[in-house]
Amino acid sequence: MEAIELKVDMVALHEKRVRKCLSKVKGIEKVEVEASIQKVVITGYANRNKILKALKRMGLRAELWSAHNEILSNYATGSFMFNNYSFF
Hints:
By secondary structure, the chain is of the alpha+beta class. It has helices spanning about 15-25, 50-55, 65-75; strands at about 1-10, 30-35, 40-45, 60-65, 80, 85. The strands form two sheets. It has a four-stranded antiparallel beta sheet with strand order 2-3-1-4, covered by helices on one side. The chain has a two-stranded antiparallel sheet with strand order 5-6. The termini are far apart. One of its GO terms (molecular function) is metal ion binding.
């Protein structure tokens, strides 16, 4: 089983729609949505391209989660830490 992390441009209202849309994709077993930081974690055997295509059909822009997204989300929530020092 594989965990795929995505950054999805959405608001809290889209959370239920994202779960419903992704639950229909074959091979997905679990969908976790964190709307506050626009992060979706998918667990299963689904193809990444199929997942991105399903979200695109729904009208949402999605990309694979990266370290850059992690830094931006921490900065936005005010919980940025580096070497156990809190900056915000």
